[in-house]
Amino acid sequence: MFVAVLPGDGVGPEVIAEAVRVLDALGLGLTFEEAAVGGAAYHAHGHPLPASTLDIARRADAILFGAVGDPACDALPRELRPEQAILRLRRELGLFANLRPAKSFKELVDASALRPEIAAGIDLMIVRELTGDVYFGTPRGRRSTETGLREGFDTMRYDEAEVARIARLALETARKRRGRLCSVDKANVLETSQLWRDVVIEVAADYRDVALSHMYVDNAAMQLVRDPGAFDVMVTGNLFGDILSDQASMCVGSIGLLPSASLDAAGKGLYEPIHGSAPDIAGQGKANPLATILSAAMMLRYSLGQGDAADRIEAAVAKALAGGARTADLGGSLTTAEMGDKVIQAL
Questions:
Q1: Sheet order of strands, 211-216 included
Q2: Which among 88, 34, 40 has a CA at the least distance from the CA of 63?
Q3: In the Cβ-directed half-sphere of 59, how many Cα atoms lie within 13 Å?
Q4: Alpha-carbon distance 66 to 79, whole Å?
């Protein structure tokens, strides 16, 4: 089994290194090939996603991804900025479904921004559509001919096929969990969201065993704080999913804890922590590698057919936390590598 390793920028190389160490400790015989992406690739090759990196990603059985984002690249044309690398990978590889689990560890309920008795009940999966919405619309900047003022706009769009395929995956996911799906939109304002709601209802007719509900995104954000334990699976569009999953991370305790999987129709995926490149702490050994290690567990489960090994990683993370292992974001003093050591010891 061949894994493409794309560390990227900022803390990406640090957290990726720990995830690879954990995978090696399992002795599964995985082979790894590393390639540059994001700002690191731009500085080395003049492009955030060089053809050689895309080729490695295409050939791999799965992709382990760190983070992209480099303040030194902020003045570049948009098409050359580091973030374009992950957007293009999603588009080129057909990675339309983003799975972002948020589950509380009992040892960390005090780290949550919520009261412990509320945080303890969190066990949800956010299913985010990944290749549509304003992220892939047509961005434009211009000066208005009427007012003379600068203006910018982006096109939010979905077609029914895009909505149907993510709805189907979310319904299948809910069927394997607790049988509840909440579809999040803004159908009272946006035509795109009305199409979303209509199509989700149509697809759900084939899943009578799944209880479907609908919620406007502003209410969903409020309910995610008030009673996150009420959610099982949430499905939503690209923009809303990006925001809600970051919110869910703080309900759990830290953005350094949440993994993600981005899947194509055949189950091949790109796996990454949901946090960014965090350039303010890059190179200091302060980053929490657990989200990346848990992303590696998702990779084993969803793309590489190694469910038992994935269970072992998740159990080792829980055991390390139960033993008091904490990085700075969790109120502790362990370095990135020391947290990796704790997980490997727990294995």
A1: 31-34, 2-8, 62-67, 269-273, 259-263, 97-103, 123-129, 233-236, 180-185, 211-216
A2: 34
A3: 14
A4: 20
Among 314, 289, 170, smallest CA distance to 231 is for 170
How are the residues of the chain apportioned to helix, strand and coil, as percentages rounded to the nearest 5?
A: 50, 20, 35
Task: Look at residue 240 and give its three-state secondary structure.
Answer: helix
**How many Cβ atoms sit within 10 Å of the Cβ of residue 140?**
10
Question: Using one digit for the tens of pLDDT, what is the confidence trace for 206-229?
Answer: 999 999 999 999 999 999 999 999
Average pLDDT over residues 66-86: 95
**Is the pLDDT assigned to residue 139 strictly greater than 70?**
no
pLDDT-derived band at 140 (thresholds 50, 70, 90) equals low
Per-residue burial over 62-101, b if 16 or more Cβ lie within 10 Å, else e, is: bbbbbbbbbeebeeeeeeebbbbbbbbbbeebebbbbbbb
Judged on CB neighbours under 10 Å (0-12, 13-18, 19+), 194 is: middle
Catalytic positions are: 135, 186, 218, 242, 246
Q: Going by C-beta distance under 8 Å and a sequence separation of 6 or more, which residues neighbour residue 226?
A: none
Q: Please tell me the distance from the alpha carbon of residue 72 to that of residue 263, in angstroms, as a whole number.
A: 30
DSSP-H helix ranges across the chain: 12-26, 39-45, 51-59, 83-93, 116-119, 160-176, 191-204, 217-226, 238-252, 290-302, 307-322, 336-346
> Which residues is 273 bridged to in the sheet?
259
All domains of the chain in start order, with CATH: 1-94+254-347 (3.40.718.10), 113-252 (3.40.718.10)
The token duo for 114 is: 């919520």
**Does the pLDDT at position 179 exceed 70?**
yes
Of 282, 279, 297, 170, which is closest to residue 235 (Cα–Cα)?
170
Q: Model confidence at 251, in pLDDT bands (50, 70, 90)?
A: confident
Q: Which residues contact 70 (CB under 8 A, 6 or more apart)?
A: 9, 10, 38, 39, 40, 42, 43, 82, 277, 279
Alpha-carbon span 234 to 242, nearest angstrom: 12
